[in-house]
Design brief:
It is found in: Membrane. The protein is 79% helix and 0% strand. Helix 1 crosses helix 9, helix 6 packs across helix 7 and helix 6 crosses helix 9. By secondary structure, the protein is mainly α.
Length: 232
């Protein structure tokens, strides 16, 4: 699929001389937060399962423990990924701008005042976070009603959120409102979910999750320039 091809190609962009300097801070943020997320996921998952799993479902321990554990792992990584994106948002927007200019063969964009980028990125991240929380409510209700499907539901949720999270950077740089972003991604639902699934899986793989953020931003930008931007 087109989006997955962009995701695979994004790894090679990490080593480009003009790109490396823009990924150092996001990389540092990822290392700190995903280290904390990994510790929290493995340390507290068993305690939470023992506390909240009803006694009448004890006979299904063999099935529910891995399912609930996987759900908690996905939720933990998704939470820390949101935190990482919130902190690194201004730098991810700059990385997306630089990658887009390089892909289109244009000079690097002029440097804007950092405070302005931080303010605009913070407002946009809050907007996205509110949407993600709103979407999480029906997902949680379905997961509680259908526990065996909980990992699938949460993974689909994480994939959609990841697609919106990372594709927002190049699209917002080009003045595309968040509502319009969602419309465009729904029109390319297969590619969007494939891209989001790839990024979500990266965030759950030790060491690979450390570079998930810059790779995700680069891949999203390549996908925007080559395919989504054609709608303009």
């Amino acid at each position: 699929m087109k989006a997955l091809h962009c995701l695979a190609e994004a790894f090679t962009w990490l080593f480009r001389p003009g790109i490396r300097r823009y990924i150092l801070l996001p990389l540092a943020v990822n290392i700190i937060l995903f280290t904390a997320g990994s510790y929290a996921a493995w340390h507290y998952s068993t305690t939470l399962i023992d506390r909240f799993l009803p006694d009448w479902l004890a006979w299904l321990d063999w099935l529910l423990y891995p399912l609930i554990g996987l759900t908690l792992l996905i939720l933990t990584y998704a939470t820390f990924a949101l935190m990482a994106n919130l902190i690194a948002a201004p730098f991810n927007s700059l990385l997306a701008a630089v990658v887009e200019k390089a892909e289109r063969g244009e000079p690097e964009p002029p440097v804007q005042p950092l405070w302005r980028d931080i303010l605009a990125s913070l407002v946009q991240e809050i907007h996205k976070a509110l949407y993600f929380l709103t979407l999480a409510v029906p997902t949680l209700i379905l997961a509680l009603i259908l526990p065996p499907l909980a990992p699938v539901l949460w993974f689909a949720y994480a994939a959609w959120c990841a697609a919106l999270q990372y594709l927002d950077y190049p699209m917002a740089n080009n003045g595309i409102p968040f509502r319009e972003q969602r419309r465009r991604l729904r029109q390319q639902r297969g590619n969007s979910l494939a891209y989001g699934s790839g990024v979500s899986l990266m965030t759950t793989v030790p060491l690979l999750n450390l570079i998930a953020m810059p790779v995700g931003v680069i891949a999203a930008t390549l996908y925007w320039v080559r395919y989504l931007r054609q709608e303009d």
